[in-house]
## 1
Amino acid sequence: MENLREGILLGCGNPLLDISAGVDDDFLKKYGLKPDNAILAEEQHNLFIPNSWRNTKPSLLPNSLRVCQWMLQKPNCAIFFGCVGDDKYSKILEDKARSDGVNVQYQYTQEEPTGTCGVLITGTHRSLCANLAAANLFTIDHIEKPENKKLLQSAEYFYISGFFLTVSPPSIMEVAKHSHTHNRTFMMNLSAPFITQFFKDPLMKALPYVDLLFGNETEAEAFAQEQGWETKDMKEIGKLMVQLPKENVQKPRIVIITQGSSPVLLFRDEDTIEEFPVKLLPREEIVDTNGAGDAFVGGFLSQYVQKKSLETCIKAGIFAARCIIKRSGCTFEGKPDFEA
């Protein structure tokens, strides 16, 4: 870990408190929800919160930086920016994130409570319904504070959740352009199909600065549809993603598409596709798939910031995702036994 130092990785996203509840398929249909999908809460979704979650204990929303820190076992390598309310939920979020080694630097607001996310579990599937609340009020002012600007200038790697496109595109562009100007590495996750569908404009403005793009197969398919690409073939979609316009042409874009239990696809240029098999877990060992995608990214980042090979990074991502889906929620314990 000779390449590691505090603040090497900076992430921006929506700090939300997870509230999980087991439901059935009829419940999802009633509220227009789908398994293994993520949406922003609308007015009708607020109706089921009191009934489903009144007695449910909140837990921390999956976060790639938490998993990254767990894999690294060295605190404060990762910094996180996001907006929360001044309430007990933000205290829970901060205490948990810091105990997991993440240096959280929240923007606080009095206007909204800390955001929450309903995680509706049907068997091994999950449907996410997020009420952003305070998370929606993040502003570029927070990044421009002298103490936070110093953190920005010190970081070598930047990771933006696609969900943050719904909140503060100006902040994303500030980080993206800074990364480009200083020849750092700017990474983004598509995060959910609705991001590519309803937040296409800010996504496409940021994309030329993206050096490394993550997405799963449903997100990649939705992205392709919005681009007018007449294919659902993941290999074709990945090749087209790599070729999209890029500001720093000296640093070719890398695209990684995960496919659940199917191989992870790595694209480094339009002609090279690499596949990495995912070892199947016995069904009885799968407890909760919520957070698997975040865990993959976290595992990947833990090796990437150490300048390990992309093969090692992807294997670490697969390892982390396998660990997470064996447990309820995005949780972990002990030290990871990952070997490159």
Note: Residues 50-55 have pLDDT under 50 and may be disordered.
## 2
Amino acid sequence: MCASFRRAARALTQHYDEAIRPLGLRVTQLTVLQALSLTGGISQGKLGEILAMDSTTLTRTLELMRRSGWVSRKRGADRREWWLQLSASGHDQLRRALPAWKKAQSQMADQLGDKLWHDLFKLADRVTTVATNPGDLS
């Protein structure tokens, strides 16, 4: 199961990376831009939970994005906590990337068909829930 999902994830990542590469983005960065756009300000820990990303990977991705000027951060009440939000440059980068992302998304949807497309979303959500909360089978 794990090997099959990882293989599919790598293939999907390559598909989307190819679409947004001309913009200087990787799909992991685009996902963070999208999440920050939807959440506004959020703690790094909560963002990691939402994206099911480990702390090391998220920290490395955020640091690259911060250096590019796309993400701003400030300390939380607890000095170990960072609060993140999109900068104006981050909003611009997301706006520029959306047409390429939508095209890649549309290509996948067209190839898979509506029913399989929606079934895969439900399955991916279910697998994520079970994997991140093994005892919670509700």
Note: The chain has one domain: 15-129.
## 3
Amino acid sequence: MKQVTVVGSGVMGKGIAYACAISGFKVYLNDLNDEILGKAKTAIDHLLDGSFEKGFLKEEAYTNAKENLHYEANLEEAAKDSDLVIEAVLEKIDLKIAIFKKLDEICPEDTILATNTSTMSPTEIGAQTSRPEKVVAMHFFNPVHKMKLIEVIRGLETSDETVSYVKQVSEEMSKQAVEVNEFPGFVTSRMNCLIGNEAMNMLMEGVASAEDIDKAMKLGLNHPMGPLELSDLVGLDTRLRNMEYLYETLGEKYRPCPLLVKYVKAGRLGKKSGSGFYEYT
């Protein structure tokens, strides 16, 4: 593989573009307009500069990554020559399907189309294209430049060749892939959402403070980050959308905590908004 397009320059899209660029791939990052992409470029450059200054990136990798990154608001220009397109937009199935329909028309017939969804169906998305065998989910984790795992989720029609291809790409990005057969929530999101939702219920019930719930999980169960800290990092609006989807598809045990619903209505979305279960400056 030589060229990757990442659609969506939010937290995950920026991270995926960065990870692909430092791995030697030519990368096009696409979003709605140049203003959004300008902010994404500033953030990625800041991460690249910091990684180089701290010694995490050698000079050659740093220089190549800067040269490899391109920012393009026109989806056709961004995706027409790519070997792999990774969609990283909001967890809204209608939005994802609309993007994949466009990509199906734009991209060469051998281009792999991947969605960075944490819960949604690559089968449903792939069925809206003429190439369901080349549609797959690649679930990256936040922060992408630090997290080593990629869940590779096989849809009903996804071919063995496609799965093998994205596993190889994962290795070239210094990630480890696990193969998952499609089922709502896959592996990590099902577990993560349950743990996080129960932590929110305990906070709402007054069992313990947010700080002590997170400390108990980190020191008692050896989690690297507490479930409430992690929810703030992911974004409470994103977590709510995931919970609503899992509640719809898997039933009562995934009913979103009322406190989560209240926080999202209040605009307390976590780290990105400055407040969630914690306050951020």
Note: Residues 69 and 244 are 35 Å apart (CA to CA).
